[in-house]
Design goal:
Helix content of chain A: 10-25%
Strand order of the largest sheet of chain B: 3-2-1-4-5-6
Number of helices of chain B: 10
Structural class of chain A: alpha+beta
Largest sheet of chain B: 6 strands, antiparallel
Distance between the termini of chain B: 65 Å
Number of strands of chain B: 20
Mean pLDDT of chain B: 94
Number of strands of chain A: 23
Radius of gyration of chain A: 23 Å
Strand content of chain A: 35-45%
Distance between the termini of chain A: 66 Å
Largest sheet of chain A: 7 strands, mixed
Number of domains of chain B: 2
Oligomer: heterodimer
Chain lengths: 452, 462
């Protein structure tokens, strides 16, 4: 049924189910489940693409979807039919089983109740506890224009705990989470769940005593792990193929040029087993890759789906992703992190005369055209003469993606990946991602506090 | 597999059928939602079609209550599978989950809500017919092409385009509850947007403009949208930073909508119950100056948030949120209203998946008498904020720190663009520090806001 003029095209057939239990005010009273199934049809010709989806598995609806998609390359002639053959060459990075199997609703409920009791026992200032355990399982089939049939079955689990604490009429909040592409049983029996409670309570109590953060330009040391969101915002989005093919990214003409200090290497790696951002194959069936984006400070790679790779004369990097059958494919990140350096993390913090040591962050955002990006601290300290002085309230840090990594002067030997909580939004689509970072010193970043 | 039909008359019937299935599986009280969405969109870039998308979606959602020894417990489930088998599976799944859910003594089952009458429903559907908003795919494509062309040719500083997009569609929603209420309504919408880039290399600036309306005939013209996007992109070129310190800022309507969002988040009845809001104790207090009034209006000719009833079938009527500075109510669904001991506000928001949320219909911030120019003259020195990025708002404490861009104002005049700065404060203080409200009331979907000037914000720059 594909038009003769098409460069590429596929059918994407998905069945997904998700379950979630949430505790608030001491009760697990939000229990929900959802099931989605449907088909997306896609036809690509040059820079243009046609995409249609339906969740009615009826011949008429499927034919209509196919017709809408092919209108983009309509020529009246069809390609010759092809035989469908299976491609199972990509090594599976996770178990293709529903991650909630073996952990029934009651076990999940007991887990949340146990976490609630633990949080309240840790500190009398804990007034509210919210805990949520969710799991999903997506079974996808991709049938490409050449008849190649690929299959992936993706588990995903997540556990989140947040608390509200109160002291002398002042309230604060703290939260922690974790997860990945593995069985729920790993979260539900392990020490990991209890650790999240300790972490959420610790953060909330810490923030009760937080001082105002300073306002202005300061040297900033980022802790290892989740602060890797810096790379996601400052660098990653700007290296996505669509923006660079179109010349709308501040990185568009920087391939082969220095964009970071010497010693900095940044990769996007979708091949790490069981990570939240990993995929055995991407949503176009390309086997997952490890792509070096920046090598020793020089820009070396873009993140590419099939269409952008073809148009740029490059090879797809396994970064073609879609939220579901109801969404078009876009080049997206997987797990994006910086390789470890040689510096001792303690020395990096001690190097600050007067600055900020930021250990944990909330979300971030970037304007890939101007390069301006932000991310907001959730655990940070004011440092003077190399010594941590006191915690500071959440502040937004702002910088320019094409400049910030050139201001890095020390790279820790302590690379960590995040605990499995990242979700990235682009073009109205959300996909799970990972980040990672060693302890890092940036000589200058604008800190958006209230103390001047 | 036999599928149930989803044509016009059947959606409410489908919801009713779901209720019967759930009752058959053991539910005492149930409410159900059935939706159907169809839509088309065309995006163009550099004068050619870049993508064509067609959406054909449907779904059912179910909330079922069961009686347990400790009281009523419930669960929710949704599916896009509306086959008879799918319906049955959904009903069985939701009962299984409700049985393990923890009962809540204050639970409010879906019976006896203050529903609209059938006459009111008929009148509403006559007044708000839905259906195709007035485009076919060719007309939508032509509008997008025209809009992008105008934006690209606005000025020689426009160097690149992210394209224009035109979309149109309609959806239908049916709600039914086990007290016999069943109603259905339709909505249509059309939108046009464009995004262009000015400058080159490390001095590139992107901006956009969009408009959405129920009918194509109410949509801003391609000329208006193109001019706004291109003028904004060009005006941002060659930005600088600025000195850190304190300043008065003016949120233009585009950025002022975020203040409505923060207010709505903080007066969400559930957040208040759970002490997750910095306004938990603020009911009846003057949290804004006396010239600020904000209302929730469920039927407004310009609003896209019109609704006759909310996600629990409760009739919506207009009410004030902020009356001359004073916080007059929290937003509540039936459960929250009961817990807070306040009147229902018809604010239950229902998606297919998950629990009931809380939100307003159309929000209108009453305009003042100053034009934006007059506000700039009045404040003398400050910053006009045209862009906000990031999520640096703590809903529990009200602490606020966001990335911002805009224009430096000196002696009442715009002198240059600024970027790479942050603005910070605390929302409670920011609300109280509003100095002026503009006359330039502007609609963005379901919110209408004027320009707002706030004094004593902390700026971080160089």
């Amino acid at each position: 049924m594909l038009p003769a003029g098409a460069d590429d095209g596929d059918l994407y057939i998905e069945h997904s189910s998700a379950e979630s239990l949430a505790l608030e005010e001491g009760r697990v009273k939000h229990v929900s489940a959802s099931t989605h199934q449907g088909m997306g049809a896609r036809v690509i010709k040059g820079e243009a693409s046609g995409h249609a989806f339906t969740d009615r598995f009826e011949t008429s609806a499927l034919m209509q979807a196919g017709k809408s998609a092919r209108a983009i390359a309509e020529s009246g002639k069809n390609k010759a039919p092809v035989a469908i053959h299976n491609d199972v060459s990509a090594p599976a990075l996770y178990q293709g089983a529903n991650p909630s199997e073996g952990v029934d609703f009651l076990q999940r409920k007991s887990l949340l109740e146990e976490l609630d009791a633990l949080a309240r026992s840790l500190d009398p200032r804990v007034k509210q506890v919210f805990a949520n355990v969710s799991s999903s399982f997506s079974d996808i089939h991709i049938i490409r224009m050449d008849g190649c049939h690929l299959h992936d079955a993706r588990p995903l689990v997540r556990l989140n705990v947040s608390v509200v604490v109160e002291q002398n009429g002042v309230r604060e909040t703290g939260s922690a989470g974790g997860g990945g592409r593995f069985s729920l049983s790993r979260l539900s029996d392990g020490e990991q769940a209890r650790q999240l409670v300790h972490e959420a309570v610790r953060l909330a109590i810490l923030n009760l005593d937080a001082h105002k953060a300073p306002a202005g330009s300061f040297p900033v040391v980022l802790g290892p792990g989740w602060p890797g969101i810096l790379l996601h915002e400052a660098i990653g989005h700007g290296l996505e193929g669509d923006f660079n093919r179109k010349g709308t990214s501040v990185f568009s003409d920087k391939m082969g040029k220095r964009v970071a200090a010497k010693g900095i290497t940044v990769v996007d790696d979708g091949t790490i087993a069981e990570r939240r951002g990993s995929m055995t194959i991407d949503d176009e069936g390309t086997t997952s890759h490890r792509t070096v984006l920046i090598e020793d400070g020089i820009l070396t790679g873009y993140l590419l789906d099939r269409q952008n790779a073809r148009l740029m004369g490059m090879t797809p990097t396994g970064n073609g992703r879609r939220e579901s059958y109801a969404h078009p494919v876009l080049p997206r990140m997987t797990n994006t992190f910086m390789l470890a350096g040689k510096d001792n993390p303690d020395d990096i913090v001690a190097s600050l005369d007067r600055g900020i040591y930021a250990v944990n962050f909330g979300g971030g955002q970037v304007d890939i055209t101007s390069g301006k990006f932000v991310f907001t601290t959730s655990e940070a300290y004011y440092v003077e003469n190399g010594k941590i002085q006191y915690p500071v309230k959440g502040a937004t840090l702002i910088g320019s993606g094409h400049e910030v990594l050139q201001k890095v002067s020390m790279i820790g030997n302590d690379l960590e990946l995040d605990p499995g909580v990242g979700t990235c939004g682009k073009g109205g689509q959300s996909v799970p991602v990972g980040v990672g970072l060693p302890t890092l010193r940036i000589d200058e970043l604008t800190v958006g506090g209230t103390e001047t | 597999m036999k599928n149930l039909p989803t044509d016009h008359v059947q959606l409410a019937k489908l919801a009713t059928q779901l209720i019967e299935s759930a009752k058959g599986a053991g539910a005492i009280y149930v409410d159900a939602l059935a939706i159907s969405d169809t839509g088309d969109s065309v995006s163009v870039r550099n004068g050619s079609v870049e993508s064509v998308e067609r959406e054909d979606a449907q779904g059912i959602g179910l909330r079922a209550f069961v009686e347990t020894p400790k009281g009523l417990a419930f669960a929710t489930a949704s599916s896009s599978d509306i086959s008879e088998k799918g319906l049955k599976k959904l009903a069985e799944q939701v009962i299984l989950m409700a049985k393990i859910s923890e009962p809540d003594p204050d639970a409010v089952p879906p019976v006896g809500a203050n529903h609209p009458t059938s006459e009111e429903l008929d009148e509403w559907n006559r007044k708000h017919p839905g259906g195709n908003p007035g485009w076919d795919i060719t007309q939508a494509r032509d509008a997008a092409l025209h809009c992008e062309d105008l934006a690209r040719n606005y000025s020689s500083d426009i160097s690149n385009s992210e394209g224009a997009e035109a979309s149109f569609g309609h959806n239908r929603v049916a709600y039914a509850s086990s007290d016999g209420f069943a109603a259905e309504y339709a909505k249509s919408s059309a939108s046009l947007s464009v995004s262009v880039i000015a400058g080159t290399g490390e001095n590139m600036q992107r901006d956009y403009a969009w408009h959405r309306a129920r009918q194509v005939s109410d949509l801003h013209s391609p000329e208006v949208i193109a001019e706004e996007a291109a003028r904004r992109a060009v005006s941002r070129l060659n930005p600088g930073s600025m000195e850190s310190g304190h300043s008065t800022i003016i949120f233009e309507p585009r950025t002022a909508t975020s203040m409505l969002g923060h207010l709505v988040g903080a007066i969400n009845g559930r957040a208040v119950l759970q002490q997750r809001s910095f306004l938990t104790e603020a009911l009846g207090e003057n949290i804004f100056p006396d010239f600020v009034s904000i209302e929730d209006r469920p039927d407004h000719p310009d609003g896209l948030g019109n609704r006759l009833f909310d996600g629990e079938g409760t009739r919506c009527s207009g009410h004030s949120l902020i009356d001359r500075g004073q916080l007059t109510t929290f937003l509540a669904d039936r459960y929250t209203a009961k817990r807070l001991g306040q009147a229902e506000t018809g604010s239950a928001m229902r998606g297919l998946t998950g629990d009931i949320g809380i939100g307003p219909s159309n929000l209108i911030w009453q305009p003042g008498s100053h034009s934006q120019k007059a506000i700039m003259e009045e404040i003398g020195n400050g910053i006009l904020i045209t862009e906000l990025i990031g999520f640096g708002v703590n809903g529990v404490t009200g602490d606020y720190s966001r990335g911002a861009g805009g224009f430096l104002i000196e002696n009442g005049e715009i002198v240059r663009p600024v970027q790479g700065i942050t603005i910070a404060g605390n929302l409670k203080e920011m609300f109280a520090n509003i100095e002026l409200v503009g006359s330039d009331l502007t609609w963005f979907g379901s919110s209408a806001v004027p320009s707002i000037a706030i004094s004593n914000m902390t700026i971080a720059g160089e």
